[in-house]
Amino acid sequence: MPNGVLILAEAEGGEIVTVTKELIGAAQRLGAGPVSAMLLGSGVEAAAGKITGAEKVYVVDDPALAQYTNDAYTQAAAAVAQKADPAIVLMGQTNIGRDLAPALAFKLGTAVAMDTIALEMKDGGLHTTRPAYGGNARAVNGFSTTPAIATVRPKSQDPVEGGSAGAVEKVAFDASGVRTKVTARTAATSEGVRLEDADVVIAGGRGLGGPEGFAKVEELAKLLNGAVGASRAVADLGWRPVSEQVGLTGKVVSPTLYVAVAISGASQHMAGCSGSKNIVAINKDADANIFKAARFGIVGDFATVLPALVEAIKKVKAEG
Amino acid sequence: MHIVVCVKQVPDWDIPPSSFKVDEGAKKVVPPAGVAPVVSQFDAIAVEAAMRIKDADASTKVTVMSLGPATARDAIKNGLAMGADEGALLTDDVFNNLDSLGTANVLAAAIKKLGDVDLVLTGRQAVDWDLGVTGTYIAEIIGAPVVTFAKSVTVSGGNVTVERVLPDAVETVESPLPAVVTVSNELGEPRYPKLQQIMAATKKPMNTWAAADVGLDAGALAPKLTLEALYVPVVDTKVELMEGDTPEEQAMALARRLKEAKLI
Ligand SMILES: Cc1cc2nc3c(=O)[nH]c(=O)nc-3n(C[C@H](O)[C@H](O)[C@H](O)COP(=O)(O)OP(=O)(O)OC[C@H]3O[C@@H](n4cnc5c(N)ncnc54)[C@H](O)[C@@H]3O)c2cc1C
Hints:
- The complex is a heterodimer.
- By secondary structure, chain A is an alpha/beta fold.
- Chain A folds into two domains: 5-177, Rossmann fold, CATH 3.40.50; 200-319, TPP-binding domain (Rossmann fold).
- Chain A is built from nine helices and 18 strands.
- Chain A has a seven-stranded parallel β-sheet, sandwiched between helices. In chain A, strands 15-14-16-17-18 form a five-stranded parallel β-sheet. Chain A has a three-stranded antiparallel β-sheet with strand order 8-9-10, with no helix packed on it.
- The longest helix of chain A is centred in the C-terminal third of the chain and has 17 residues, at 302-318.
- Chain A is elongated.
- By secondary structure, chain B is of the alpha/beta class.
- Chain B folds into two domains: 2-221, HUPs (Rossmann fold, 3-Layer(aba) Sandwich), CATH 3.40.50; 234-264, no CATH class.
- Chain B contains six helices and 15 strands.
- In chain B, strands 11-10-9-12-8-1-6-7-13 form a nine-stranded mixed β-sheet, with helices on both faces. Chain B has a two-stranded antiparallel ribbon with strand order 2-5. In chain B, strands 3-4 form a two-stranded antiparallel ribbon.
- In chain B, α2 (73-81) links the parallel β6 and β7 (86-90).
- The longest helix of chain B is centred in the N-terminal third of the chain and has 16 residues, at 41-56.
- Chain B is globular, with a radius of gyration of 22 Å.
- The interface between A and B is large, with 86 and 78 residues.
- β10 of chain A pairs antiparallel with β14 of chain B, so a sheet runs across the interface.
- The complex binds flavin-adenine dinucleotide.
- Flavin-adenine dinucleotide sits between chains A (134, 205-207, 231-234, 245-250, 262-264, 266, 268-269, 272, 283-285, 288, 301-303) and B (13, 41, 127).
């Protein structure tokens, strides 16, 4: 009988990432039986001991998992799932989760709901809510097969607090069927505060007119110790790197303060920033969608508003 | 080299959010009157990826395939106008209301029917459901490896090399063919067909296949992921616009409000 919730844990530099804690929190709140975790990778055993709130931590530690490939990770995750026999599997909507979840679902003869933002148990089964149509709609899904698999949008769930480490169990896997290989990897370099972790994000859109329009955005970000974000239009035009893109196909941020400058506020952009505690919009079009999500706004041209705002904030800050 | 590109016809996404409507009873989106459906954005880019391979090697054959109602023919024609060689439309009443896995089962069956396919390209996700799973399901069904989120796709010597975009990195991934690759917007804009190409596209071969033609029956297509509700979420934030006769006054008003709210 399938039972309990199995979550995919992820580690970065030996530490358990935030979304993993959010998954364990969500899994506990479901009340759908024991919570277990799986950690896949190479040299990850020490990190496994840092996972709290799961009764059991399955570890697949193998050199073939040093770099993520769909083939290797699907086989490893399937080996764990077959052993754990969960009723529900949860992963983050992360680089790994996005790619792995559908392949695992197929291997286990079931289906997956991607990028969910709410999870609920009803009539003994998992029901998920997810944004669809670029965030314009919400879809509620159920599952007719087990295990029910869902990926969960980062920052949509409260993380688990405390709890003790689970019993670690090693699971073997066979790497012989791996067909793809990663031959090179170039990491984006970013200075200053990491966008996903920043408490203040100043984001710029196509209305800035060119890369030089970002000079004042950067200045404001520096002044508020924040990170710079961008719309996809801007990333596509090459004005800013993809690593700064906020939205459905970019990063999800939830800072205390999100300032959107010359961004129209398309639903796909809002998908990445609607969890922000306070949105400030600066846009010359009073009807722009961004004002519908904003707490404060200025209708005006960024070219005059931004320099004035930098000066005004300096002044107000100096007043103490 | 035979490439199949899977394209989906979707409601135009480029409409003001205020005209986005859902029929909650039917659990379907109601497009605004007079707005025609379009090719899902990433799928047109997948056709572009195929055409770049064909540009480099003219012997490449590109088939554009779509599952959908009869109107999906237009989505295929768009790919043919961009330079693809043939079309395949999968249409049947039993294909209505499939889940992604059902859709992938039909597409995979048609790909197997074609027989000689080396590379399958899809968009990274369809812009209606935004699930991003169909390409991976097709790969699993036909037993081929999958590489997602491509910004470039090149083939040589029985292998495909993909530059894969992640938010914080670009990876180069190599895979033997046959393979499935899903394409992201970083690949670049799809080419714009000339009028002459649009005319020529109408004369290119297009197959129309029903479930029986690809050897499937309705029972095999029952959804595993069921849709229980579809609705438009309510947002009820009220924006406070900064007053002022000059940008300086507006900016100062904002700075003071941010200070009061302890945001700076
Ligand atoms: C499936 C899918 C996924 C997507 N994923 C993402 C995503 O992850 N992130 C994302 O951002 N987008 C995404 N998009 C694209 C999205 O739909 C929009 O096209 C994009 O967000 C628009 O970017 P923008 O607001 O910068 O540009 P525009 O929509 O062109 O808006 C520019 C704004 O600037 C304002 N403006 C112009 N000049 C000035 C001025 N001088 N002063 C002040 N304001 C000015 C205008 O009034 C306008 O509101 C996606 C689309 C699809 C279909």
